Each structure stands twice: as structure tokens, then as C-alpha cells.
Amino acid sequence: MAEKKRILSGIQPSGAMTLGNYVGALRNWVELQKTDEYECFYMLADMHTITVRQEAKVLRKNALDLLALFIAAGIDPEKSPVFFQSHVPQHAQLSWVLNCNTYMGELSRMTQFKDKCSKHADNINAGLFTYPVLMAADILLYQADLVPVGQDQKQHLELTRDIAKRFNNAYSETFKIPEPYIPKVGARIMSLQEPTQKMSKSDVNENGYILMLDPVDTIVKKIKRAVTDSGAEVCRGEGKEGIENLMSIYSAVTGSSMDEIEREFDGKGYGDFKAAVAEAVVAAIEPIQKKYAELTANRDYLESVYRRGAELAERVAYKTVAKVYRKVGFIQP
Ligand code: TYM
């Protein structure tokens, strides 16, 4: 039997997860896992999270909560190793070697770096700058074929490919060149209050984002308050960013295409549409919340999941680092 293709992806435990993370990434992880075509590694990117100052106690809680959410959303840890990045030392090891094969110029062009610098002007640390190199290490360690992410990670994926090709050219074939997997709908869920901005948990206006753990009535309220335009038609087009965003969310959680949604709501107003979106989002999130509540009560189980996950991940990561260390000329220990 041919070997399965491999998937690696990660989410940062940098606070509560948003509907954007779910629609743009986690939901697709679950779908890809179901196809049985891939061997999937799913990572909690805790090392990335400390590029922005965290309170240790809060980070620990967010990390375990996110792990529970992964499983509640349908990731099967028996099938796909789920692990904390900080538990697999090879991420930092490979990252160093890749740092020595990445140019300052490339890193200064990363739009997320520029964004974060403007948001965290008092803490523009070196980790924030080299963050995309750590992300490249995450992916290349597992020789991933496919990396399911939202649109905002596309530039980091391109850099990863460039670094991998550069290394392969300099030291002979070492890394697989990964492909991004960016969903057609939902790759960039926008703020409900400012539909030209990405939905993000760092938004100062909490009505701009939906959290996976928001109470159901809050979710309904946030959707009903979502900014739209002065028109009345549920369709895509110039100046319709707010409605189009709600359509993407509806499409992602119901599986209806954008054309089908336009037909379904033809002649109906924004009020009806928002009520339908709210109902569909709640129907998608509520079962996840219920499972999440059961899982967080079972700390032993969560511990067994991340221990096993790290063990399996390290088995693969170890081989890549050994190969890389040999190729760059380090004496074998
Ligand atoms: P993070 O934690 O910011 O986001 C996790 C995933 O959610 C997607 N996403 C969105 N998708 C649609 N609409 C949105 N509004 C939205 N906001 C976020 C992101 O694109 C991402 O797929 N650097 C990564 C984590 C990471 C990683 C990796 C990912 C670390 N190493 C290796 C892939 C492979 C990050 O900060 O994502």
C-alpha cells in the first residue's frame, strides 16, 4: 500500500478560539481526517503564543481548553496525534537551522509581522520577527504534503516553501515541499462589526467576533447586531461585505453554496437571514460546547492525549532533525 500523504497544522492557544479559527481551519482538519487519505498531525502552537506576552497561568488554561476544543470539534486523537509544540524539542532545534537559511528581508516583508508590530509596539521582540521560521520548522519537520490553514497564513506557507527549496538546493533533497490547503469558502471570516477586517480575538470590540465558547444567546445577539448595508438583498457584490461575510459563515456551517444561499433568501430581508445564520451557527457550535464541557472535566484523559501525541510526533520529528544535522555538518552525538 502506498504511504499516506501527511498533514500538519496548528492553532495558537492565545485565548479563546473564534468562529474564524473554526471555519477557516479546525473544521477542515476534521473533514480531512475523515477522508482517511492522510496521516494528520495537529499541533497546539504554544511556542508561537509567547511572541506576545502571556500570563503563565492563563496560557496553561487556554492551552488545555484548546486541546479539549480540538477533540470536541471532532479531531480523533487515536487517529491523528494531537500535541503541544513545546513538548517536541525538535521544533526549536530545526527552527535554529532554518533561521540560518532565511533572510532578514524575507521576514520583514511578512504582513503579520508588520500588523503585530503596530499592535504590540512596546514588545517587538525577535521571536515575533522569526515566528514564520518556527512555523516553517513545524511543517517541514513532519515532511507535510498539505497544510490546512486560513487565508492569513498563506504568506507564511509561501515562505516555508521558499526556505525548504533553498535548503534542498544547498544541501540536497531533504524536505518535502508542502502545499497549502485553503478552503474556498470561509478562508477569511471577517469582523461582524468591521467587515473589511479579519475576525480576530484581539479585536477591541467583542461584538466583532464569535467565540466557540460564547453562550448561545450571546452568539445570537452578536449575529443580529452584525453590521450590514442599507440595502435589503441577500447577495454578494460591491459594498455588501457584511452580508457576504454572513453568507460565508452560513455556507461553511450548512454546506450550502453561495449561489444556493442567494436563491434560498431571494425576496427575504436581512432580519430573516440573520435569524437563519444565528440558528445554523448555534446548531454547529452547541454540540461542540457540550462535548467540550465533558472533556474539560476529564483532565486525565486530556493528559493521556497530549502525552501520546507528543510521543508520536517526536518519532517523526526526530528523524528529520537527525537528517538535517547530518547534512549541515554537525558531528553525530
Ligand atoms: P492562528 O492561531 O492565528 O489561527 C489558527 C487558524 O485559524 C485561521 N484563521 C482564520 N480563518 C478564517 N477566518 C479568520 N478570521 C481566521 N482567523 C484565523 C488561521 O489561518 C489558521 O489556519 N501561525 C499559525 C499557527 C501555526 C501553524 C503552524 C499553522 C503555527 N505553526 C504550522 C499551520 C502550520 C497561527 O498563528 O494561526
Q: Could you provide a short overview of the structure?
A:
The protein is 55% helix and 7% strand. By secondary structure, the chain is mostly helical.
Keywords:
2 domains, 7% strand, 5 strands, two-stranded parallel sheet, Tyrosyl-Transfer RNA Synthetase, 333 residues, 3-stranded parallel sheet, mainly alpha, Rossmann fold, binds tryptophanyl-5'AMP
**Strand-residue proportion:** 5-15%
How far is the N terminus from the C terminus?
35 Å
What's the architecture of the largest domain in CATH terms? 3-Layer(aba) Sandwich
Secondary structure: helix percent? 40-55%
| Shape label | globular
Bound molecules: tryptophanyl-5'AMP
Question: What's the SSE blueprint?
Answer:
Layout: E1 5-11, H1 19-34, E2 38-44, H2 46-49, H3 56-72, E3 82-84, H4 90-99, H5 104-108, H6 111-119, H7 126-141, E4 146-148, H8 154-171, E5 179-181, H9 216-224, H10 241-254, H11 258-264, H12 270-296, H13 299-328
Parallel strand pairs: 1-2, 2-3, 4-5
Helix pairs in contact: 3-12, 4-7, 4-13, 7-8, 9-12, 10-12
The structure holds tryptophanyl-5'AMP.
